[in-house]
Sequence to fold (328 residues):
Amino acid sequence: MLRLILSFLAAATLTAACDRVPVTDGAMRKVEDARARNDGPALWRLQDEDSTLYLFGTVHLLPEDLRWQRDDMREAFAQSGTVFFEADHAGAAGLRAQALATQRGFRRDGHRLTDTLDNYQSILLEAVANNGGVDLAALDSMRPWLAGEFLTLAAADAAGLSAELSADEALKSRAARSGKNVVFLETAEAQIRQMADLPEAVQLELLTDTMERFEEMDDTLAAIARDWAVGDVDALEAALTGPLENAPDGYVAAVLTDRNAAWAERLDAFMDGSGTGFAAVGLSHLLGEDSLIDALEARGHDISRYLAFLGEDVIRPADLDLPDVPTD
Fold:
């Protein structure tokens, strides 16, 4: 879950257009100034005659000093009466999820994690536990999926990243303060089952991959947070969807594509009504094949990147061939 629930903004590329037409230095400075104010994590928008829905990609692990709340996101959020999130992790819902994670994540059959590992995997587990400052005995009491999540959090902590500072939690707080109608697309318990219900062999394969990448994972997670903040969608797709090509059978469907299809049904129902909404979901759900965007487009919606820096306050030469993105 923690490794895959991420989403991004790509800035519109003006270079090709600038090669085709003359553009004054003053106009380009206006564009760059507007980008500095508004460019940030990815926003997409779908509209019909009486409904608008913004799709915002989030990440769950951020450094405390990262500036990511830009004007375009704030304005879209302020316009929205209904806000969609993946799941509620607070209060009673969070306690139920914690209880389920304990029940499904720790072994209760008298066996240890290392009983299912070969010699290479056992030595690797001991090494990453030592390097990550994680209690080996605690890891050894876990099922593979939970051990992988604990190691990911250890790598995030080493990189100065925290789930408590996630974009999701910041926006949930803002939604509550603003009196928004908040809708959750699934439950936190369902998210746990998506991992806990994977076959043991798949869990072991995922854990082994996490252990083999552990030494570089802190740098990888930090780079993802930085790229997310500045909108480098190419780097994010490579980091987030590229490795999925070799994922074990059933994993991508469980954590991404099946959920995308279910969420698309809920969001499509919103578009059948009227009003403005804002959906904050993990970035990986908005990238690659069979994304949430693909699922919504299959239902007849036209979705475009929303980039506020191409708004009316930007001076643009009349003959500049701008990217096909909405500007109103």
